[in-house]
Each structure stands twice: as structure tokens, then as C-alpha cells.
Amino acid sequence: MARQTNSVSVVEKAYGTHQFKVIGYNQNIYSFPIRSGTFNIGGYDWRLVYYPRTRSLDEIDNDDYIEVDLELLSKAEVRVMVDLFFINQVTNLPYSVACTNEPMKLTRKSVWATCDLMKMSELESSGYGRDNSVIIRCDLTVILLPDVPETKSMYEIEVPPPEMAQQFGMLLEDMTSSDVTFEVGGKSFHAHRLVLATRSPVFKAQLFGSMRDTRMESLVICEMEPEVFKVLLHYIYNESLPSMDHGADRANRHEMLCHLLEAADRYAIERLKVICESMLLLDLDVENVAMTLAVAEQQHCKQLTNACLEFMEPPEKMEAVVATDGYNQLKRDQPALLFKVWESSVHRRSSKETRADARMA
After folding, report:
1. Which end of the chain has fewer CB atoms < 10 Å from its terminal CB, N or C?
2. Where does the MATH domain lie (predicted)?
């Protein structure tokens, strides 16, 4: 049982509204500030400050303007969002005159100032200034930063990794539950019809198709080596390949991969086919490229075929390949494929020359 600690942090918000009515604002000819009463929102004390008859920041504009500030009175650092309104005293509807789009940080005695909210002349001619009074509404959203949460100790029950792949692999070794036997090159292999049919459409047709023989308990596999069929079964049950390292004998490994590619194509196991292509590509060298090309062409592996042709493109590589036994066998068994090698080489060189001429131009 593994030990684990756990903590939870939650950011919350507090909302509140304060309405401040200023009476006799027009008589304040000296423009001294008028302060609201203290109000508390989110656990912090606030105050509005009203400044009549302030000058515009625009030096050309000589009109008097209204300014309203928000002041934090508490000794704290607070993040807050503000929306400031004038209330139309005819319709009683609010009119937003200033707001913050994102939380701002205020500390004690710091001020959120709003300049040039509205001209005094406009206030007096509209419904916002009435009977020598103005009503200001301030909506606050206070971001409540959480305290450092308490860390609690708890226990976690460790769940073991999935076992199905391992159990299927063990199933291959269990001959007591098998229901079909394959005879390959004088060796017998026990397997399970449902597993094979699930993994390969070819096996499915052989074992459960309309032409199957229900009494048939043994199938003979021709033109395949026992070791190749053994690796094929291992992949079917385990979705992975066994280790195929043969020490310094790299050629044996490459030959096994070629035969396994043929088997994967024969039984339509597409992922195994791609795995073999990828491993053959990594193993590609002068000695085996001709044999690999022959297998790739036969199994319609276009990517592997192109990789082999590109590998042989440089003249020095091609000269070395021509001297190998694999090339001689390719020339003897598939002479038409050599024409494809030559044609590809000419085409690639022509393309390179065309690109070089274009760059020089």
C-alpha cells in the first residue's frame, strides 16, 4: 500500500454593491472630495470618494468633470474588479461609466481613480443629476485568495498493471485448452481457434468459414519454416515479437524478418507486416538490400521498396551491391526487378540535376 498526501485549494469570489447618493453636489464650488460611508465587501472595508469639478486631462478642454475613486481601507492586498454606474433618477436605470475588465491589485490607502467620467454640464442636463443630487452605484467582485490548504495524509491502494496480454501469452503454452493443431515442417503447434480467428481474417475463414471441416482438428501449413510459424503464433497471442537476437549472426535475423513479413502478409496481420518492414529498414545494408527489395516487391510493401531503391542510388553503393550474392540471385530470379532499379536510379538523378539547374538559374 503506497502512502500519499492530498490537499485542495479553491479560489472563491465575493460580490457586493454599494450605492452612494451625493446631495448638493452643485454647491461644492471648491471641489473638495466627498466621501461615502465605509462599506464591507468580501471581508474588506471600502470607500467611494467623489470629486466634482475636476479638470480634464485634455489641456484644450476647459469643462469641469466628475471623478469617482474607490479606496481600500483595510490593511491588506486585494484583487478586485469594479463596475461603476450613475443611476438615472428619472428611469432609475443604471448607466455604466467605468469598469475593470480584469482583476486589479489594491493595497491599503491605494486608490482606483476614474477621470473624466462625465462633464458637469452633461450631468446637470441629463437625468443623472436631479434636484442637485447624483446617485453612484459601485459593484465589486473581490477575488478571495485561499489560504495555504492543509495537507492531509491518505493511503492509496495500488492497482496492479493489466494482465490480459500476459495471460494470453500463457494461454499459448497451455496445451490442455487448445482445440486445434498445426503441422508445420514436421513440428506440431497447439492453438485456440477463437484467438486465431480474432487476430487474422485468413485463420477465421479457415477455421469458421463455410468451407471448414468441423471434424478437422489438425491443419497442415506448407511453405513455411517451423521457427517462422512459432514467431507468428507468439505475436498473435502477445502482440509483440520475441527476442530475435542471434549474436553476431545478423543475417539470420534479417532472413527471419523477411520470412515473417511473408507470413504476416499471408495471414493478413497488417500491424505485424508494418513492424517487419520497419525492422528490415533499420537492418538494411549492402549485403541484404537486394534480397530485401525482392521480398518488399513481392509483398507489395511500397515504403520498403522505395527505401531499398534509394539506398542503392549512389554509384558507390550500387557498385558494392552488384558484387553481392543477393544481387546475383535477384538477377537470376527476378530480372524485371533490376530494370526497376535502373529506372529509379535514372529518374532520381534526373530530378536532382533539374533541381540543381533551377537553383543556378
Report:
1. C
2. 15-140
Q: How far apart are CA 199 and CA 224, in angstroms?
A: 19
End-to-end CA distance of the chain: 72
User: Lowest mean pLDDT: which of 53-57, 126-130, 188-192?
Assistant: 53-57
How far apart, in whole angstroms, are the C-alpha atoms of residue 311 and residue 331? 18
DSSP secondary structure, 170-217, as one string:
HHHH-GGG--EEEEETTEEEEE-HHHHHHH-HHHHHHHHSTT--TT--
Distance CA 23, CA 51 (A): 13
Query: What does the block give as the cell for 89?
Result: 433618477
Average pLDDT for the chain: 83
What amino acid is encoded at 1 in this protein? M
- Rounded to whole angstroms, the Cα distance separating 229 from 259 reads 9
Q: Which helix (H) or strand (E) holds 155?
A: strand 152-156
pLDDT of residue 88: 87
Residues in the chain: 361
Q: Can you read off the three cell numbers belonging to residue 90?
A: 428619472
Beta-strand pair 39-41/44-55:
antiparallel
pLDDT at position 248, please? 47
* DSSP output for 255-316: HHHHHHHHHHHHTT-HHHHHHHHHHHHHH--TTTHHHHHHHHHHTT-HHHHHHHHHHT-SHH
pLDDT band at 18 (very low <50, low <70, confident <90, very high): very high
